[in-house]
Design a protein that fits this description.
The structure is a homodimer. With about 300 residues, chain A is mainly beta. The first copy, chain A, has two domains: about 160 residues, no CATH class; about 140 residues, no CATH class. Chain A is built from three helices and 22 strands. In chain A, strands 1, 2, 5, 6, 8, 10, 13, 15, 17, 19 and 22 form an eleven-stranded mixed β-sheet that branches. In chain A, β1 and β2 form a beta hairpin. The radius of gyration of chain A is 20 Å and the shape is globular. At the A-B interface, β20, β21 and β22 of A face β21, β22 and β23 of B. Chains A, B: It holds the Pfam family SUFBD_core.
Chain lengths: ~300, ~300
């Protein structure tokens, strides 16, 4: 059993779907300290010598294993930057679950900045899930500034699920990826902001290798007076395929700025972008309301479906 | 008959489809001087007092009249900035044809920067055509940096056809529009670059009034080693509709950077964007080649169709 209080356990459930110690390799960080760690025969987790974070080394050919490295913070006024590096061996096929939950009932800001670097070996396959969540009724802000840097060797593939569930007051999210030949990246981002929250999310995906491909889809809902800014950039330097899509719902006095960009530097680069910002269509609301839902319930249903 | 040489007449034909003095109001500028001007009962063209350009005043209710203000330059080494203001009266319905052709056979750069401001009155309707063209085998560059600023009163509408035919070595195009209630703007831009040409085109359309709408479509073809950068920005500050689309073909070593942006500051703003960059599809070429065209001819057909 883990030594965690009820708040920490609730955060863990939100960000990593975990009730207790997960199967496979894991590192649980709570209030700035590791409170549990486990390696497996194929996955080794070690602290960096300077104490700035951890290294996760996954042996070549490792199949159907998972790594969980969730972070929970329940003290007000904490601020930390953690550097975690993932070395995924050739031909491995793994699931990596990160995520951070902050509960802040105090008056000081709490901030966790995770810098994750992924070195994905040839023909390796990674599914990466990162969930962010904030709770607590304190005036102190819940701040999360994740940086994700991905280097993908030939033939590798990665699927990223990047989710900000709710309760995060301020976030600046930076994701960079560099793809070699035949590598493929799929990103599904979901951002929900409410109150006076601010979210900035920036992607820069560079397709350097022949036949590399990227599909980056970001969906956002800005409620109340919240603000979102989205920068999705794809650069094609070879014969490659890139697609980005940015779909946003605004509600109340929410505001969204979407600035996608496509850069084709090679005649065989095929790049496509779509973006749409609007409110929930009136006829969708009416349909659900005729089924007996209130307007508020109908809105909630639609938003949940959109962000799923 | 106009006092123009053969080169100037050829340029005039390219940029304004004119063989001679047009019907209606006109101002023809050649090598920095007005070489012909005509006003009509409803459209008055006058020089600005400081000599920096002309004012075009169109009476309210003027229907089915046109204004031509083409510019031709055939001297190497000329550089001019001209300020032209258009005042379009309430309920008028007019066609305005601008455009600039530069023939440069010399070693010095030739540059024309036209700053056009449009004040479109309530319920007025404007069709605006602007064509840019360069020719001549001199080493001096043909440079065109147009600035277009549009203020649209309630219920007015404007359709802009902005075309860079060919031969323009360097261009920086800025178009800004501000729309009040029920105003509608349609933009069709066509940009062709070749050789080592550089084209930068920036649109900023602000929808301030209820039910304002904008539809901005830019099509570009970058051949040889040319480079295009496209910034299309729509800002929605009211219940409004905005659509931008950016379709580009790259050929040879051409490069294109598309940076559209959507900014929704009102819950009833509906904004949509699409962009695609790619080369001509192989099967399109093959289809035309089976009809007897060479690859070069097939490419030309497709590009011409795309830019029409």
């Amino acid at each position: 059993m883990l030594k965690m209080d009820e708040i920490q356990k609730r955060l863990l459930l939100e960000v990593a779907d975990l009730h207790d110690v997960p199967m496979g390799a894991y590192n649980l960080r709570a209030n700035g300290k590791s409170v549990g760690r486990g390696s497996s025969a194929n996955i080794e987790i070690t602290s960096k010598e300077d104490g700035s974070g951890i290294d996760i080394r996954i042996k070549p050919g490792t199949k159907n294993e998972s790594v969980h490295i969730p972070v929970v913070m329940s003290e007000s006024g904490m601020k930390e930057t953690v550097y975690n590096d993932f070395y995924i061996g050739e031909g491995a096929d793994v699931v990596i679950v990160a995520g951070c939950g902050i509960d802040n009932c105090g008056t000081q800001d709490s901030e966790h900045d995770g810098v994750h670097r992924f070195f994905v070996g040839e023909n390796a396959k990674v599914k990466y899930v990162e969930k962010h969540y904030g709770s607590g009724d304190g005036k102190g802000q819940r701040i999360l500034n994740p940086v994700t840097e991905v280097t993908m060797e030939a033939g590798s593939s990665m699927e990223m699920e990047m989710v900000q569930i709710k309760g995060v007051d301020s976030t600046s999210r930076t994701t960079k990826a560099n793809l070699k030949a035949d590598a493929s990246l799929i990103v599904r981002e979901r951002l929900m902001t409410h109150g006076t929250q601010y979210a900035y999310s920036e992607y820069e995906v560079t397709l350097d290798g022949e036949n590399a491909s990227a599909d980056v889809v970001s969906r956002g809902v800005a409620k109340d007076k919240s603000y979102q800014k989205l920068d999705l950039r794809i650069v094609g330097n070879a014969a490659c395929h890139g697609h980005t899509e940015c779909d946003s719902i605004i509600m109340d006095e929410g505001r969204i700025l979407a600035v996608p960009s496509l850069e084709a530097n090679n005649v065989d680069a095929m790049l496509v972008h779509e973006a749409a910002i609007g409110k929930i269509a009136g006829d969708q609301l009416i349909k659900l309301m005729t089924l007996g839902l209130t307007e508020k319930e109908a809105e909630e249903q639609i938003v949940n479906g959109f962000l799923k």
